[in-house]
Design brief:
The structure is a single chain. By secondary structure, the chain is an alpha/beta fold. It has one domain. The chain has a five-stranded mixed beta sheet. Strand 3 and strand 4 form a beta hairpin. It is globular, with a radius of gyration of 17 Å. The N and C termini lie far apart (61 Å).
Length: 159
């Protein structure tokens, strides 16, 4: 009985570690279904920028400018990756994302949302798979002293 309980606890612990230790690309809704809603992640990752600099990871204007450059580079690199993998939007797609990163720039979670009707389910699935592949090896261009999150509205096009 003790062995079975130990195995169950060990399996549960390994499952939790694997869920929280690999890069994941998910819609906000899918993250919620999997028990990792953004508000839970927000409690684990500090905001990259904040109206109150004491609550931000990147406090100074110089640090924030560097963050913005790195964030734009990430989106440009993602666009290049999508093009290299023959992904076409075929229209402008507007959405939002929230990206959760390790201090060394590794991406833990890339949550995104497109309003209903922006993408077909097939196009969203293709985007999710490519995004998941992209973030597995991507390193954000700057590092930080602690885990952080960055969010924004986004506009994707084929141009």
């Amino acid at each position: 009985m003790k062995e079975k309980l130990f195995l169950t606890i060990t399996f549960a612990a390994l499952t939790i570690v694997s869920v929280f230790s690999q890069s994941r690309a998910l819609t906000f809704q899918e993250a919620e279904k999997q028990g990792i809603p953004f508000h839970k992640l927000d409690s684990l990752y500090k905001s990259a920028v904040h109206t109150d600099p004491a609550l931000a990871v990147f406090k100074s204007p110089d640090q924030q400018a560097e963050l913005l450059q790195a964030y734009v580079k990430l989106l440009q690199d993602l666009g290049a990756f999508l093009r290299a993998n023959n992904f076409k939007w075929n229209t402008e797609a507007r959405g939002a994302n929230r990206i959760y990163m390790q201090p060394d720039g590794r991406i833990d979670y890339f949550l995104f949302h497109f309003p209903e009707g922006q993408l077909t389910p097939e196009k969203e699935q293709q985007f999710t798979q490519l995004l998941d592949s992209f973030i597995r090896n991507y390193r954000f261009a700057i590092t930080a002293p602690e885990k952080f999150a960055q969010c924004s509205a986004v506009r994707y096009t084929d141009n």
